[in-house]
């Protein structure tokens, strides 16, 4: 049963030691992410599952770890082998900072090759059963919003990110599942498959007569990449 969810971006600079000259610029975003994850922990789920994109699909238990060595920071989060992709590594860091125990964690990587129905099915499966499950969903928006973006600029990027944030704000799972892999790739969107896992979990909650109460905590594009932090709490319909 889905009890809550938090959506966060996953740039390496969410870790203060990796931020360098961006430390001051992103201090507010880092604080908001940590506060939202603490709120997620405060819902007291039986398990928190971190969902994010990666080069290959995979699932790991709470002992898995991730490293930022590839990003110039010799640090590892989690207690086991460093096998997690970047998105799940940042999620692991956020759970470490919130003191969430590893025995109550899980990690799921999805890929850009997965279509919306595949992602939705994973989400529904994660929240099946009576145990309370919270999702920490890691995903960046378009990296083509401005001329200084990593992907230069695409005039469709801002509307795309606005569509995503509006859907998250309304708990509109159908709108999230409308996102196509093709457009996401064109706009350099990292979060599309993870958001659609959340949509699948949200649909399962609606089927169980529970509704989403959403709060958008952050919606901006520092350095030309769309970042959003959104909290979901589930309540009886």
Could you say what the CATH architecture is?
A: 3-Layer(aba) Sandwich
CATH level 1 name: Alpha Beta
Computed structural class: alpha/beta
User: Rg to the nearest angstrom?
Assistant: 16 Å
How much β-strand is present in the residues?
Answer: 15-25%
Largest sheet: 7 strands, mixed
Report the total helices.
7
The number of domains: 1
Low-pLDDT ranges: none
Question: Helix share of residues?
Answer: 25-40%
Side by side, the strands of the main sheet go 3-6-2-7-1-9-8
Strands, total number? 9
Q: What's the layout of helices and strands?
A:
Elements: E1 2-8, H1 27-42, E2 47-53, E3 58-61, E4 66-67, E5 76-77, H2 86-97, E6 105-110, H3 116-126, E7 133-138, H4 157-170, H5 173-177, H6 181-186, H7 192-207, E8 210-220, E9 227-236
Parallel strand pairs: 1-7, 2-6, 2-7
Antiparallel strand pairs: 1-9, 3-6, 4-5, 8-9
Can you summarize this structure?
By secondary structure, the protein is an alpha/beta fold.
Provide structural commentary.
By secondary structure, the chain is an alpha/beta fold. It has a single domain (2-236), classed as LigB-like (Protocatechuate 4,5-dioxygenase, Chain B). It is 34% helix and 23% strand. The chain is built from 7 helices and 9 strands. The strands form 2 sheets. It has a 7-stranded mixed beta sheet, sandwiched between helices. It has a two-stranded antiparallel sheet with strand order 4-5. It is globular, with a radius of gyration of 16 Å. The two termini are 14 Å apart.
Question: Which structural traits does this protein have?
Answer:
single chain; 237 residues; alpha/beta; Protocatechuate 4,5-dioxygenase, Chain B; two-stranded antiparallel ribbon; 7 helices; 34% helix; 23% strand; globular
């Amino acid at each position: 049963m889905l009890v809550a969810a938090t959506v966060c971006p996953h740039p390496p600079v969410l870790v203060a030691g990796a931020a360098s000259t961006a430390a001051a610029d992103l201090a507010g975003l880092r604080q908001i992410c940590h506060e939202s994850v603490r709120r997620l922990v405060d819902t007291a789920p039986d398990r928190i599952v971190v969902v994010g994109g990666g080069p290959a699909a995979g699932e790991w238990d709470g002992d898995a770890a991730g490293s930022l060595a590839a990003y110039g920071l010799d640090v590892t989060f989690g207690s086991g082998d460093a096998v997690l992709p970047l998105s799940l590594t940042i999620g692991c860091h956020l759970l470490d900072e919130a003191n969430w125990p590893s025995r109550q964690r899980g990690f799921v990587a999805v890929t850009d090759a997965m279509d919306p129905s595949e992602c939705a099915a994973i989400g529904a499966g994660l929240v099946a059963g009576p145990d309370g499950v919270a999702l920490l969903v890691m995903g960046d928006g378009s990296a083509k919003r401005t001329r200084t973006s990593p992907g230069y600029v695409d005039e469709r990027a801002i509307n795309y990110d606005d569509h995503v944030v509006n859907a998250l704000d309304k708990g509109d799972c159908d709108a999230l599942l409308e996102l196509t892999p093709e457009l996401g790739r064109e706009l350099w969107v990292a979060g599309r498959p993870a958001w659609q896992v959340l949509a699948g979990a949200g649909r399962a909650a609606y089927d169980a007569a529970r509704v989403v109460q959403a709060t958008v905590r952050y919606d901006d594009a520092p350095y030309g990449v769309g970042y959003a932090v959104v909290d979901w709490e589930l309540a009886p319909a």
